[in-house]
Amino acid sequence: MRAVQFDLTIPKYVWTKAMGKVHPSLYVHGPKTCVDIKTVPKPTLPADDWVEISVTYGGICGSDLHLVSLRDSPATSPFVSFPFTIGHEMVGTVTKIGPGVRRDLFVGDRVVIDPILSCETRAITSPCHSCADGNFNLCHHMTSGSLSPGLLTGACKDTGGSWGEYLVAHESQVIVLPDTVDDKNGVLVEPFTCALHTVLQNKPKRTDTVFVIGAGVIGICLVAAIKALHLKCKIVVLVKYPFQAELAITYGADDVVYLTKNEDYVYDAVKLLKAKALKPIIGEAVVDGGADIVFECVGSKKSLQDSLRFARKGGTVALLGLANVIDQLDLTMVWLNELIIKGSFAYGSDNYLGETKRTMQIAVDLLSERQIDLSPLITHTFPLVRYREAIAIASNKTKDHSIKVVLTP
Fold first, then answer.
1. What CATH number corresponds to the domain at position 77?
2. Phi-psi region of 159 (alpha: psi -120 to 50; beta: other; left: phi over 0)
3. Domain limits at 256?
4. Closest CA to 317 of 397, 229, 222, 212
5. Handedness of CA 133, 371, 224, 229 (dihedral sign)
6. Residue 183 to residues 186, 249, 378: CA-CA distances in angstroms?
7. What is the pLDDT, as a whole number, of residue 224?
8. For 344, which DSSP code?
9. pLDDT category, 13, cuts 50, 70, 90?
10. Which pLDDT tens digit goes with each residue over 346-371?
11. pLDDT of 21 above 90
12. Distance separating alpha carbons of residues 324 and 385, to the nearest angstrom
C-alpha cells in the first residue's frame, strides 16, 4: 500500500532543518527529508482483538504540520516510534475483523477511531490510574506494553496512520458512525473532539465571556462545541482573515476581532471584553480586566502572550495550541492576576448530560443529532500522491484560504 511516512534520523534531521530554512517546501522535497511517500506492507493486526480499516479520508492536523516542519519539541520524541505513517484524523471502512473482537463490529462498517494508544490497546491488563478513570490521553504506559512507543495512531510504527491506505485499530478505539453522520463530518470528528473535551473541562457559565484566540479548525470547532452544548455565554474570537471571521460568526461567535500587526486589535478587543488597555512605560499594552475563559488555539509566542493578558483576574487560560519551547514569554500576568492555566491534550472521557463516556462518542452523538454540520470546514481535498501540495496549501492560509485539508487514498 502507499503511505506517507515520517522517519527521523540525525542526518535527515540536519538536512531537512537546513533546507527548510532556505524554503519551506524543502521540508518535504528532496531525497534526504524526513517525510516521503512509500510503498509498504499493510499493517498487520497486533492481536486478535484488533481490526483493519480502509481509510476514506485522512485529515491534515496542525500537529502534522508542526511535525513535517520539525517544530515539535524534542520532549515528545520518546513517545513515538520510527518510521511511522502520519495521520490520526480519519474516517474509513472496516475491512478485516480479528477473531478475538468481542464488540459488534462488522466488515463494511463506516467508522472513526479514537487514536489514543492507552493501556487497553497495549494489552496491559492492570490499567494505570488515569486509564482506570477514563483519562486515556494521560495514560502512563504509552511507551510500553505490546506496542511500540506512540502517543497515538499516526505516531506509532505498528498501527499505520490516516496518511496511508490502511491502518489497524484496537476494538476499543473504534466508533461506528450512524448514517446521519457523513464521511466529511466523520473526518472532522477528531479535531471537534479535541475542542469538545476542552470545553467540557472548562465549561463557561451563562454570565461568562469567552475569548477564543485563533480561528483555524480547532478555534472554529471550539465555538461549534460551545453552541452544540447549548452553553449560553458570550463568545469573542480573535481572527486573522475575513474568511475565518465569516466562519466564526456562522458557527456561533457573537463578535470577532481582527488581529493586526500593530496594537490596534488590543483596543478593539478590550471594548468587547469590557476591559481597559493600560500603557506601560515601555512595551505592549497591559489589559486590566478581560475574559473569564481564554481558549488559546494557536500555540505561537504572540498568541500565548495574548492569552495571558486578555484573561481577567482569577480567570482561566486553556491551552490547545500545541505550544512548545517559547523564548522570552512574559509570565507576569500569571501571578499578578492569579490565573488558572490548564493544558489540553486530545481527550479521554467526559461527563455529558449526567453520563460519563468517551469524549469522541459524545462528539459523534452531537453530530448524529444534527446539532452541527462541520463539513463546510473542508476546503481542499487531495489524493495521497499529492501530499506535498496538500501540505503547502494547509500551511498557507493567506493565499489559499484553507481551513481543513484532507487526503484520499
1. 3.90.180.10
2. alpha
3. 192-343
4. 212
5. negative
6. 5, 24, 11
7. 98
8. -
9. confident
10. 999 999 999 999 999 999 999 999 88
11. no
12. 30
Do 234 and 293 sit in the same domain of this protein? yes
Q: What does the pLDDT read at residue 31?
A: 80
3-state secondary structure at position 398: helix
- Do 22 and 57 belong to one domain? yes
Closest CA to 109 of 175, 180, 42: 175
Sole residue written with cell 509570565: 331
Identify residue 60 by its one-letter amino acid code: I
Task: Classify residue 349: in a domain, yes or no.
Answer: no
Burial class (CB within 10 angstroms; exposed 0-12, middle 13-18, buried 19+) of 227:
middle
Q: Residue written as cell 481582527?
A: 258
- Answer yes or no: do 43 and 181 share one domain: yes
Q: Calculate the alpha carbon distances from 350 to 134, 214, 251, 347, 359 in Å.
A: 8, 24, 23, 8, 5
Global confidence as pTM: 0.96
Query: Does one domain contain both 213 and 174?
Result: no
* Cα separation, 197 vs 343, whole angstroms: 11
Confidence of residue 194 (pLDDT cuts 50, 70, 90): very high
φ, ψ at 241 (rounded to 5°): -130, 155
Do 224 and 180 sit in the same domain of this protein?
no
Whether 109 maps to a domain, the answer reads yes
Same domain, 165 and 202: no
Other beta carbons within 10 angstroms of residue 124's beta carbon come to: 18
d(CA 56, CA 58): 7
C-alpha cell at 394: 494547509
Q: Is the dihedral of CA 43, 47, 52, 58 positive or negative?
A: negative
Whether 14 and 132 share a structural domain = yes
What number is the average pLDDT over the span 4-33? 87
Per-residue pLDDT at 74 exceeds 90: no
Across the chain, mean pLDDT equals: 96
**For the chain, what is the domain count?**
2
CA 35 to chain centre: 20
